[in-house]
Structure of Oligosaccharide flippase family protein:
Amino acid sequence: MFRTAFLILSGNAAASLLMLLRNLLIARMIPVADFGVAATLAIAMSIVEMVSAFGLQQQIIQAKNGDDPRFQAALQGFQVVRGLFSGLLLAVLAGPIADFMNVPEATWGHRLMALVPVLNALGHFDHYRLNRKGIFGPMILASLLPALASLLAVWPLVAWFGDWRAMLFAILIQSVVGMISTHIVAERPYRLVLDRAIIRESVIFGWPLLLNNVLLFLVFNGDRIVVGRLLGMESLAIFSMGMTLTLAPTLVMGKSIQNFFLPRLSEAAHGEGPKARRRFFRLSQGAHQSGFFTGGLLVVATVLLGGPFVRLALGAQYAALVPLIDMMAVMQAARIFKTGSSTIALARGKAGNAAMANLVRLVSLPLAWLAVQQGFGLEMVIWIGILAESVGFAVSLLLLRSRFGASLRPLAAPVLATALLLALPLVLREWPGVPEWTVALAVVLAFGVQLATMRTIRAPVLAALARKLGR
């Protein structure tokens, strides 16, 4: 089990690292304001993808008939319809979005981005289906190839354009190669079927995910919209780069947790008897604790390496990011804690838990808008985000207890240790004169305490290490 988890995590991490390198290279090689314009392209893309997704990839894993060829073909057919609708919507909204973000010169680029959802929708679902059997290699390869192609295209694109257009065409190249890769790794022939019954089933399954995706758009991009609209492209570039550096590992870890636990939790949820219930409980604890651990690891790594990395990789033009990077890591860590709860609920066929937890984040966005209008800067926007993500995590736990009768008592010690870990860098950096090494040492010690409270994930890791050392 540990080997499988490591394979999933390393594959997702490698793809994310390639994308991070792409963004860092482009940010270093083009003006800061142009990177802000490039960030508006990502925002526009997210608008369409988030509000038109029905969780079809998760459905093929969770459904009992997910291995049926006709069911897969019907999901692929529905995906194509969804992609065509998304592309048309993005083309129509290109002008208003560019005008709202005060970058009318990028309107044509936003229209060209309408090709991305269409290309993504033409992908094969077979690598998702194979996850049901514990086969993750095709999924990893389908993620790595487009990321590598996009990275390799950066230098010639920047040399040719020298501005935000380099990011535009890097994204298009990634989508083309990504679509082709899913067909290369597939075992089954690609078929499309339009089945009303399955589409209806997908809509019923996916509408809570659709609602959650709307909320996720606001979670991931609401702050960027506030910053870009009210503070300008340079501030948007600083904020977006901080989000990239902290959000990229968060998404990798969250995706890996879901990839690993969802098939196993779904199988246990469909089982009967005390043995299946015990296995579901053990896996649930593992999903929660994996989220706590990975969020804590993100905070520790950022406290130790975040500032030096920003100075080395991005130079003086991103110096304003250094005092903000720890806070942004705490915000993203609080976000990933909800992954365990949402994965557990999804395995039970309840997709709405994640949306209800993320609704708290939606409420925080008007507060951020008002704060910026009142003269506050990026730091206040991040503080509001930290508070909202923390409350959203608490809501996700309460939903598990109320909907499924899950006991929260086993989570008490890990939650308290994790809260201490997240609070330390925020509090200590506010005290004048506290040395950097003191902050780093305190966070590392708190991380050790956190790990000591999480027996479910600690045991298999130690057992795997013992087997390695015994060889």
Observations:
- The chain has a mean pLDDT of 82.
- The radius of gyration is 22 Å.
- Residues 1-194 form one domain.
